[in-house]
Write a structure and sequence with these properties.
globular; mainly alpha; single chain; about 400 residues
Length: about 400
């Protein structure tokens, strides 16, 4: 559910940016890589739930085509392995830094403007150093403040929407400062950065998690009022903050290059000044996960939200997803009746018995898989399985001419 919310939020924010006539190269790469990976994770979890019905091809298999088409989304327009390990940070480090692009352009100025180029280079270089120092001390300050806020925060604080937004905005500001410091340290690698795929992949993970975090908060601000949205938003934000924190930690543990040990130490001091104490983000607890699970497995406003823009076939037309959506309220009501009957130790009324029977019939129909007496290619006239042709040829060469004789 939280993966789905993060994907929807990312798409909504990206659409808003594009509608504003912007062309965000780095964010489009982040969206392509993160959303296809989230989609793969969602479908794989769906395969676990659907079990055997998801591997039997046919009209009743509503996941098989999605599962088989995911590699297309992951590989086209730049495979995710390239997008994550090169494109996002390769573009982002240049295009998103406030001073780097001007510095690079100064190196490309003609020789006739050498004096001006040197002035621009020195000016931008000093700005880059100042920017790095600002990020270093800002990262330390935000890290300590964010840790204190996390350690003192109640587990139910997310139920207040204003507090939810305020807390997570501060955590994303802290992670953004950590990321900015790390990006500045990457300049110590010079041109060899493009060969450091592992480092760039981890930074892409951190940047993607931060972007989706902001997108999720933007989405909550626009859609707040849906019952249960606070819980799912909290679940998504905790996972994204943990992902960004882990990516930055792994990057600091494995910073490459001749100055790698120095850069690693500076990064650890800047991002995690008090060690483990300033790495406060954890995955959602069981209670929150159970609450989110209940919201999407029982009739609720949150489940209705996820059903928006979902194709629903007309009543009576076979469409597995539509049938599953319509079956849920009936089955939940029947389960509640069955629970009350067991609790009250009584027999069902006629109406209750009809509802239970209806739910049983729906369940029985939905768990069925596609069954074929023959493989589709075998239905053509005169078709003989190749294996049987070979068997007949071998039997013809033997003294015993049929299976019964061999037995």
């Amino acid at each position: 559910a939280s993966d789905g919310l993060a994907s929807i939020a990312g798409v909504d924010l990206m659409n808003a940016i594009v509608d504003n006539h912007e062309a965000p190269m780095v964010i489009s790469s982040v969206m392509k890589q993160k959303c296809t990976e989230l989609g793969r994770r969602i479908v794989e979890r769906g395969m676990d739930v659907a079990a055997g019905s998801a591997i039997c091809r046919g009209d009743k298999n509503y996941l098989g085509n999605a599962y088989m088409s995911l590699p297309i989304a992951i590989t086209v327009e730049g495979a995710n392995i390239m997008t994550r390990s090169f494109q996002i940070i390769g573009q982002g480090l240049t295009r998103c830094h406030p001073h780097m692009l001007d510095l690079m352009q100064s190196l490309q100025m003609p020789q006739s403007e050498e004096k001006k180029a040197v002035e621009i280079f020195c000016k931008q270089f000093h700005k880059i150093v100042g920017h790095g120092l600002t990020n270093f001390f800002g990262s330390i300050g935000r890290g300590v403040n964010a840790t204190v806020a996390t350690k003192t925060r109640s587990k139910t604080a997310y139920k207040d929407g204003d507090k939810l937004l305020d807390y997570h905005e501060k955590q994303l500001l802290r992670l953004s400062a950590n990321f900015a410091l790390t990006a500045d340290l990457c300049f110590t690698l010079g041109g060899s950065l493009k060969f450091q795929e592992l480092l760039m992949g981890r930074l892409a993970d951190a940047l993607g998690a931060i972007y989706l975090g902001y997108a999720t908060l933007h989405h909550y601000e626009r859609r707040r009022g849906i019952d249960g949205l606070e819980a799912v938003t909290e679940h998504a934000m905790l996972r994204l903050e943990k992902e960004a924190q882990d990516a930055l930690l792994t990057a600091s543990d494995n910073f490459p290059g001749m100055l790698g040990p120095v850069a690693s130490t500076v990064m650890k001091i800047g991002c995690f000044p008090l060690g483990n104490m300033t790495r406060p983000y954890k995955n959602p607890g069981d209670e929150l996960s159970k609450e989110v699970s209940k919201l999407v497995t029982t009739p609720s406003e949150m489940r209705d939200f996820f059903q928006e823009n979902l194709f629903m076939a007309p009543e009576g037309e076979m469409h597995q997803v539509s049938d599953l959506v319509r079956a849920l309220p009936v089955c939940v009501e029947a389960d509640m009746i069955a629970s009350s009957l067991r609790r009250e130790k009584r027999q069902p009324t006629e109406a209750e018995a009809d509802k239970i029977a209806q739910a049983d019939a729906i369940r029985d129909a939905l768990i069925q898989v596609d069954v074929y007496e023959k493989f589709p290619t075998e239905m053509s006239e005169g078709y003989v399985r190749p294996a049987l042709v070979g068997t007949e040829e071998r039997l013809a060469e033997l003294d015993r001419k049929n299976f019964d004789a061999v037995a």
